[in-house]
Amino acid sequence: MTQGRGGTIFALSSGAPPAGIAVIRISGTGARTALAALARRVPPARQASLALLKDPMDGGALDRALLLWLPGPATVTGEDMAELHCHGGRAVVAAVESALAALPGLRRAEPGEFTRRAFENGRMDLNAVEGLSDLLAAETQSQRRAALAMAEGHFSRRVEDWRQRLLDLSAMAEAALDFSDEDDVPDDAIEGRVSGEIAAMMREVGAVLAAPPAERLRDGVRVVLAGPPNAGKSTLLNALVGRDAAIVSDIAGTTRDRIEVPVAIDGVAYLFTDTAGLRADSGDAVEAIGIDRARAALDAADIILWLGKTDDLPRPDAILVAAQSDRAGAARPGLRLSALTGEGMDALRAMLHRRASALLPGDSDHALHARQRQRVGQLFAHLQGAVATSDLLVAAEELRLARGAIDALTGRAGTEDMLDRLFSGFCIGK
Ligand code: GDP
């Protein structure tokens, strides 16, 4: 990995050309000189101005562009930065990039290198970096909201508050240790205060851990359609996702395997699974495998839409659907639904939304990924270890380990390969 090299970097930070405008960002000590070389002047800081860019090699016109000069450290990377807002044509971008690459000390940025510099210069912690990564990948509105909060540092500030409080607690515990030989210091009082504050922090950390995880936001709430063959599962799935995702036929057992369809409805990501009909007497080996997989899908489901008999409900919380309600026949219990006429479809969507919302991080929750949850879990365990002991020495050590978990959480103590992996997941120019 060559990440983290020095020098002044540049990259196209807007979308792929051709586009209306192309934003080329430059970051590093050479940003000012680069501006001066192409525009022959440096505009006042943080004020947009128009200039004809010229190739410093031959004086040929490159493009007319909007310039921004952003002196560090109050920039996104913490370094001197410049932006060139050019016309978004391929040749324009190529010409400006070549002119920049020819300048001494300038080179093309690697994926995520701007963000990495922001992290290394203390402008963002690891949690905010992950939030930004999620924000760029967000496809649904609920993903966007959670990622934006993370990128904006809501969780980072919370963690920084915990870190400060832990430092105070460690100092108190150390002081109590130092004075524990002297009879005149009431260390019982100090110990009481320390454990009281740890307990308060444990409640906060525990609440953060108890919130729904971020993965469900990203991967979608798992909805499984199940029931006997020909109940109308495939047709209902198609009606829900609005396209012909599943094979529909009236030969029993057509859906031989699971069909998974990721889809966003009302701003929420779902992963719908259409399962093979649950027929115990199937003689077909392939269909039997499908049925096994259907059972596995049912086990992993967040929400089950059951199109079978009430008595066979696979889980008490499954939603009982009386499908094909437009067909003549006795009224059945459950949500009356017809994929054909649309009866009950809005009610079903609303019901799914209500159920899904309860499974997803809310706007006031921090949506944590597995990495973050693991560290927050360690923090919680060490706090628990600190209150559980009557030995002040052990408590002080647990508090130190708790701080270690926080440093790993924020990236203050991070391994190089983990950082390489994280940043290389970004696009170039970010
Ligand atoms: P699956 O085996 O449970 O996936 O069932 P399918 O979705 O393949 O449906 C079986 C048959 O019932 C097909 O011929 C569908 O066209 C028909 N069907 C499904 N849903 C409805 C419905 O709401 N109304 C009517 N009239 N027919 C339906």
Can you walk me through this structure?
The chain has helices at residues 31-39, 90-101, 113-120, 126-137, 141-151, 154-179, 187-210, 214-219, 233-241, 285-300, 345-359, 370-388, 392-410, 416-424; strands at 8-12, 19-27, 49-54, 61-70, 81-88, 106-108, 221-226, 259-265, 268-274, 303-306, 319-322, 335-336. By secondary structure, the protein is α/β, with parallel strands linked by helices. The chain has three domains: 8-125, Probable tRNA modification gtpase trme, domain 1 (Gyrase A, domain 2); 127-213 and 367-411, tRNA modification GTPase MnmE domain 2 (Four Helix Bundle (Hemerythrin (Met), subunit A)); 217-359, P-loop containing nucleotide triphosphate hydrolases (Rossmann fold). Strands 3-4-5-2-1-6 form a six-stranded mixed beta sheet. β8 (259-265) and β9 form a beta hairpin. The longest helix is centred in the middle third of the chain and has 26 residues, at 154-179. Bound molecules: guanosine-5'-diphosphate (GDP). Guanosine-5'-diphosphate (GDP) binds at residues 229-235, 248-250, 254-255, 277, 323-324, 326-327, 338-340.
